[in-house]
Amino acid sequence: MLRYDTQSDFNSSSSWSSYGTSMNYYGGVFDGRYVYYVPLNNNGNVLRYDTQDNFASQEG
């Protein structure tokens, strides 16, 4: 998952943050607060990211 700091220069590497997720997700759905990652190959593990939480938080 990538996050861009909209207050920074788009071309600067420091404007971008990443958080490692496994490659077992097909896509995502955003409901206005959460991003839900859809499992690939029916592994059954849905990933939910809280956009209002700290980006690096394990709880988010």
Q: Which sequence of SSEs, written as H and E, runs from N to C?
A: EEEEE
Our count of helices gives 0
Q: Number of DSSP strands?
A: 5
Give the structural class.
Answer: mainly beta
Most strands sheet: 3 strands, antiparallel
Average pLDDT, all residues: 83
Strand arrangement within the widest β-sheet reads 3-4-5
Shape: elongated
Label this structure with key terms.
mainly beta
Question: Would you write up a description of this structure?
Answer:
By secondary structure, this protein is mainly β. The protein is built from no helices and 5 strands. Strand 4 and strand 5 form a beta hairpin. It is elongated. The mean pLDDT is 83.
Itemize the secondary structure elements and their pairings:
Layout: E1 2-4, E2 16-18, E3 25-30, E4 34-39, E5 47-50
Antiparallel strand pairs: 1-2, 3-4, 4-5
Could you give a quick summary of the protein structure above?
By secondary structure, this protein is an all-beta fold.
